[in-house]
Every structure is written in C-alpha cells, then in structure tokens.
Amino acid sequence: MKRVRTPALAVTAALAATPLTLAQDDIVRVGMAFHAGGKFDGSFNQGAYEGGQRAARQLGVQIKDFEAADPSQVVEGIRAFARGGFDLTVGLGTVSNASITQVARENPGLHFGLVDAVSPAPNVASLTFADEQGSYLVGYLAGLNTSTGIVGFVGGMDIPLIHKFEAGYTAGVKAANPGARVIAQYLGTTPDAWTNPGRAKEVAASLRARGADILFAAAGASGNGVIDYVGQTQCLRAADLPAGVRFTSNNFARVPKSAAYRQACAGDTRPMFFIGVDRNQNPRGDFDKNPATLNHGLTSMMKRADNAVYALIKEVRDGEFRGGVRRLGLREGGVGYAVDRYNRALIPSAQVLRVEAVKAGIIAGRIKVPTR
Fold it and tell me: Fewer CB atoms < 10 Å away: N or C end of the chain?
C-alpha cells in the first residue's frame, strides 16, 4: 500500500477498499503498521519490514503494510487489519502501543505483535530488546578509538527506551576509556523527533564544535542527518578544537584514505565517525564508494527487529503464538555490533577480541549494563 495522507476516516475507507481478505484461508496473513519515517527509514522500521519480507519469501505468508502519515492514524490501520481477520497484526514502537493494545482488547481471538514496547493485552506478543547491551559494545569501541576523548550521543525522542541506548553507550565508553566524556543531546519530546534529520544535523554540528569525533545516533530516520553531517565534514582540525581539548591518539593514521579526503583534511586532523543503529549502517560511511579506503561508519549497534518479526510470524504460521513480553539481548542474538568489509580496517583484531570478551562478560552476568 502507498503512503496515505488523508484524514483518519478516509484512511479507514481506503484500507477497507484494499484486498485485505482475498487470500486463501490456508495462507497466513500479516498486517504491519508503520509510522514515523515509514518502512524505508533506513533504521528500525526498515529492519522490521525486511523481517516481514523474508517471512513472505521463505514461509509463504502474505504481508500487507500500512504507513500512517500521522501517529493518530495508526489505530485506523491496525483496526482495519483486525477487521479483515488477519492472523497477525504488528505495530512498531511506543507510538503504536496504545493502538495495538486497544484493538487487541477489541479482538481477543486475534494475534498481535508489538515491537520495541510492552502491551498489557494478553493476545499481544511484546518484542523488546536489551538495547543497552548492544550500545555498551559500540560505546566500548568508541572509547577505544576516540581521538579527543569526547564522543557524542544524539537521541531521538526523550523517552526511557532511548535512555537505555544512552546509558549503555556511556557505560561502554567509560569502561574502555575512563577519562573519556560523553555529551548527550535529544531532539525532542514528541514523535516528530524521529523524522527531523535537519535538527539532528544541527545537533551533530554542536557536538563536533565541543570536540566530539564519534557520534552515536539513536533517533530513527532523524539519524540520517547525523550521517549526512559526518559525510560533509569528514574530520576535525586541531586548530578548531575548543579550549582544553586536544588530540590524544591517531588510531587511523595508517588506514588508506581517498585523495579527496587527504585534500579536504590536510594538516593536523582526525577523522569523524558515526555509529549506526538498528541495522548495519556501516556501508553508508563509504562516502567515496571505495571500501578499501577510510570508512566513516565506525560500527553499528544492531537491533535485530528483522529476526524478531520473522520469528513471530513463524510462530503464528506454526500455531505456536504466545502473548507476553520477550526480551532479546546478546544471549538471544537480539542485539550486537557490526564488523564487515567497510569497517574492518578501523577495528583491528585485537579490539574485536576485547569486545568479544566484554560481550561474553555481559552474557555471563559478570558485567552489569545500566539502563538509565
């Protein structure tokens, strides 16, 4: 379905007019309701969408999606899927919680999924993630690699969910580099914070001006603004560092760099990096389209919404659905960090071994990661 930009009643009518009930009875039908950046936000929503598409290919289920132009329209899309008797309806994020809960209570015989939030309705499977654990690992890498001792965190909506990202990231940075400093800034207190890359770019500029050379954004589609900013600036200059801040390391001196980078960042400079979120965004740091040269995506905090959605759909197909809360962390493969051909030159094997040891410590319970 295409993005709908009509009032709520018209949205309901439009959905009712779509072929929601034309599938054969033996085909599992799944409805997915997207908002705040849409299914191609390059982050969390897209991961969930890809999990649904994988289920369609591999499990033979039918997937329908609805993209709300406004959070207030989410409930109409969810209710239309329920009215069509869909076997599973999935909502994404805290903005969908009230809508999923309301419609699930109206339809106790149907199955619902809620990703990244917790519903009290018994027929809702609430899929949550130990975001703080994955954030700890990427924070650890940031602490090992910062050249100024200052790193940034760009949060989307100022809510407890994103506080977990910040808390884990900060703890990881400090564990690797006790003298380092984390500067955090949020984009807002309403759902618009997820879809404001322009504001995120402004925040990224302010963090760089304070000496931050690595920026971790947990901000949905707004995070694209941080990536764009890193691509435009590429480096920090010693002459532009604020008072009291200086370069303390040069970990990437031997990493091959493009001619354009060498020209733009000549002299006493250090590269800027972003840390991706939810999906592997490392490739987006390949600004010169050459993986052999310096990449500006240090790593990515992987939140496997794709795996969670796929597994839930498979449960429904196999008749094994169960409601309630599930928490997916490092042990369950729900979160992690990304090392691939784009950033392998940035993270030497010795660092990978250190991070893997930290990961094992978290899984074993020897390392307690804070959530706020």
Answer: C
